[in-house]
Amino acid sequence: MNVITSSAPRLLNRNPIFSAIIVIIAEMGFLQIPGLGKVHFHEYGSGPKPLLAFHGYGMTGRQFHVLEKSLLTKYHVYGFDHFFHGESRLDGWTDKQICAGMTKQMLYSYLQEWFKIYGEQRISLMGYSLGAGLALTLVEEYAHLIDDLILMAPDGLATRTGFHILTHNVFGKPLFRLATKSTWLAPFLLKAVKAARVIDESLYQIAYNEIDTPKKRLDTYYTLNLIKLLNPDVEKVAALINRYKIKCTLIFGTDDHLFPISVAKNFIAKVDNPEIHEVKMGHWLVTPALDEYLTGERK
């Protein structure tokens, strides 16, 4: 239900009773994207600044609600569900269309439709893992309106060799499709990735829980194919961050084998004065422990 105007974050700070009513009414909403579908979003946070957020694989736009003492006091979050996650739904897309992938212009439409509801205004962006690639892609088009860019264990800063093989390679594509139908192939490939130390035990368990049924395997296949064209131009993004003086914060887990800080070195070197955090955690970053770290309660 889209009943809050762009003044909602300010109103939330003025009247506790009104605030509680608004949160109940507008804790979620939808953007209707022409040619794409319905994008579901969650609203939370008591801060005055709008923050559009993109979650990691297997989660929803509510993922960042655990950062209540750090980010949610500064921002009013609009957390979008990826397609094949939460309540976002493609409108009549065929298997062939999904496998061809959505375009960057379709992603830009998220903000075009959001602005129609809340008015064009300055915003901030946040993304974790897979979602960071989407946030980076939006910088290409909307850098002039962005104040802060917060990236956690970010995808999109270097070539995803494994994902590229599965979604673009002439041999990898049919193998990926076959893995969605097989009860043994996907677990076998996941174990091979773990053995190669691309992921650790905790990430293996998380990933395994996302491929243990035929529907979950198909959702994985569709998700990765749908976003395969959304590869940010890292050189362009870095230049835009510098040009528009966007505050760029990057957070990495010291034990993250999927998107460690090493893959972001080139990007970090090109950005003026980025704020870098390395936390004693793995890839699974968005937790109450990170909230404590960001507030200084935990080293």
Describe this structure in words.
The protein contains 13 helices and 9 strands. Helix 5 (130-142) packs across helix 11 (234-243). The chain has one domain: Rossmann fold (3-Layer(aba) Sandwich). The chain has helices spanning 8-12, 16-25, 95-100, 104-118, 130-142, 161-168, 172-181, 185-195, 201-208, 214-226, 234-243, 265-270, 288-294, and strands at residues 28-33, 37-44, 49-54, 75-80, 89-90, 123-128, 146-152, 247-253, 275-279. Strands 1, 2, 3, 4, 5, 6, 7, 8 and 9 form a 9-stranded mixed beta sheet that branches. Strand 1 and strand 2 form a beta hairpin. The chain has 299 residues and is an alpha/beta fold.
Offer a few descriptive terms.
299 residues, 13 helices, 9 strands, Rossmann fold, alpha/beta
CATH topology: Rossmann fold
Q: Which band does the percent of strand residues land in?
A: 15-25%
Order of helices and strands: HHEEEEEHHEHEHHHHHHEHEH
Give the count of helical stretches.
13
Q: Compute the separation of the termini in Å.
A: 40 Å
Question: Any idea what the radius of gyration is?
Answer: 19 Å
Structural class: alpha/beta
CATH class (first level) name: Alpha Beta
Helix content: 40-55%
